[in-house]
């Protein structure tokens, strides 16, 4: 069987990050819901198409059943014959146990589970506490960069103020600072990534990883997801469910799937480096990759016009962020 042509282009992460595929594959509630051989085939095909960034987090929490999706990823890449230099690993660092558990200890445990000795990118989890010492956090991250355990780092759903604050601390510590902001972004959730506060963040060289682009599958047509999905800032999920039919109608007019339309929309943001999505079927992967062609065929401006009526968190969510 011939290897497919690489069709997924690359974009730079921030000013000091690597060149990553404009589509990145997530692992939250994916590999643990697939037959192993199917997961191997899908990840192999993703790499062959040009996807080089894989988000692999330790998603288990105390009091909850153990989760092994990251361990499965280690076995998947081995079975698929994918060498470590063929992909970039994005790991999660959670802030709840910090600083009692150091970033280094947490990261080393995560890397042990995934079977490697370094993360090309780490994403700091949401800030859910008031006593987080951003200066010390920046110092600790700078040390990990110097030691080569991480290549660069970013943040997940932080406020624009917090991003700029830790960037200032990081520069003082000798680090380039955060290179990417992972933000919820879809035709329905736009207030933060499209708002003025983050426009300033992006102007300073930080880029975006669009996440939760299908609202847990709702925007792909699954209005009652059978798995855990992300938080609902602004309490607009019911309105998103209502908007899903309208987006599906637009997609039908364009002769694409609703998922392709959502992926294509996120690719139109000028500061997006990569769009994160999860897939449990080969066809989902192929469809999402085909969204790249949709942007080229319809054009970014027209796509944004078509989905504009479905922006439901406008004037509901503070564009500054949480």
Mean pLDDT: 94
Q: What is Rg? A: 19 Å
What is the terminal separation in angstroms? 48 Å
Spatial shape: globular
Structural class: alpha/beta
Across the major sheet, the strand order is 3-10-9-8-7-6-5-4
Strand content: 5-15%
Low-pLDDT runs = none
Give keywords.
two-stranded antiparallel ribbon; 322 residues; NADP_OxRdtase_dom; oxidoreductase; K_chnl_volt-dep_bsu_KCNAB-rel; 10 helices; alpha/beta; Aldo/keto reductase
Structural features, described:
By secondary structure, the chain is of the alpha/beta class. Helices cover 39% and strands 15% of the residues. The strands form 2 sheets. It has an 8-stranded parallel β-sheet with strand order 3-10-9-8-7-6-5-4, covered by helices on one side. A two-stranded antiparallel sheet has the order 1-2. α8 (258-267) packs across α10. The chain is globular. It starts with 9 loop residues before the first strand and ends in a 15-residue tail after the last helix.
